[in-house]
Amino acid sequence: MKTKKRERVRLEKPEIRVKDGEESFEVSAFLKDKSVSRMGVWDMTWRIGCTTVRMGGVGGVETIREYRNKGYSRMCMDRAVLEMRRRGFEMAALFGISNYYHRWGFASAMPDYRLRIATRLLEESKMPRGMRARPFDRKRDAAGVLSIYARNNACRSASQVRPGARKWRSFRRGSTWFTGVEAFVVQDRRGRIAGYVCHDKSATEMIVSEVGYAGPEVFPALAAEIARRAVAKRTGEVSFCVPPDHLFASYLKKWDCREEAFFAKGGGGMARIITLEPTLKKCAREFAERIRRSALRGRSFGLGLVTDIGSATIVSRRGRIFIMPGARDGVRMRISQRALAQLLLGYRDVPAVGLDAGVRIPPRAQSIAEALFPRGCPYMWGTDQF
Does residue 381 lie within any of the structural domains? Predict the structure, then answer.
């Protein structure tokens, strides 16, 4: 009896094209003249502590259904990482599905936070005399809102540096890509913007996706207007997507509330370092401030970082920080780029990262690493996510 030979399916090799935009570039896989898979990379700036780093925001990842599971998206991602390195990006970030983007060195680095409180409790807040709430108007309010945002997030790792009022695209989305957005501002008695709130445009839910304030005295007014809008939607609970160290989150804890945090294993808000030495150089001023606040203040040391994307040494001399190429003489630690990105953003603690496979932090390096990479609360507001 003759056996049929298995036919080998030969996938047509696509052409990978890169198209430049005004503030981004797109990588696409073409079969002949048909784009079957694509993704965009936006040229952004985000914060590492009080300093800034050029970051490539990866989004708009899409493959036509009948062309999925053929490796086309993988080819686009390979090219995107190469392009970011070639164009001088220091870091990259994305908000992605689980167990996929780790293949390109991305690690979960931005938790999701949610604080829930009953509407009836918020109703206890009253609008202070001299303050009033009104809908956000982009032309009228953009400059004031952006000024407040910049002050509130001046040292928040993973927060995006927004452009000026002319280029800012305003609040683009709510708590997810599938929800519209509404916003309001609170004015003080002089007509100045004292605070603002952005929330989902929904008939049944009240989900707050961003809060900004000029001073804590506006908090009762913000709470009162949020409660009023929640009552109008006939919802019994308000959800706040705010980081736990935000001052307004602390204010809300005067009532019964429930705080939740979600840390993904390999999905959600993710980040990676694209170029090691340039990234560390951008962070030198932040490192100096961290050392100044630590027990190592005034000490001189060198910490060599040996990673899978290169080596560099962080040198401290009388409070000044220098970044030198290669792992020079001194204390060395071996660490993956993924784990280093998590430490840089403050997502994980040094002792915990030291237990990861392939990571080696000698005892002499422990205190130095803990001073340079303290635990923080990295967060990108939902309205900025891509």
Answer: no
C-alpha span between 378 and 49 (Å, rounded): 9
Nearest to 219 by CA among 203, 240, 195: 195
Please state whether beta strands 258-262 and 112-118 pair in parallel, antiparallel, or not at all (unpaired): antiparallel
Domain that holds residue 33: 15-110
Do 129 and 257 lie in a common domain? yes
**Does 118 share its domain with 147?**
yes
Residues 344 and 241 in one domain: no
End-of-domain residue from the set 262, 284, 314: 262
CATH code at position 64: 3.40.630.30
One-character DSSP codes across 301-324? EEEEEEETTEEEEEEEETTEEEEE
What is the number of domains present in the chain?
3
| pTM of the complete model | 0.93
Distance CA 91, CA 48 (A): 11
* pLDDT by residue, tens only, the chain of 386 residues: 444 444 444 568 999 999 999 999 999 999 999 999 999 999 999 999 999 999 999 999 999 999 999 999 999 999 999 999 999 999 999 999 999 999 999 999 999 999 999 999 999 999 999 999 999 999 999 999 999 999 999 999 999 999 999 999 999 999 988 899 999 999 999 999 999 999 999 999 999 999 999 999 999 999 999 999 999 999 999 999 999 999 999 999 999 999 999 999 999 999 999 999 999 999 999 999 999 999 999 999 999 999 999 999 999 998 899 999 999 777 999 999 999 999 999 999 999 999 999 999 999 999 999 999 999 999 999 999 99
Residue 51 maps to a domain? yes
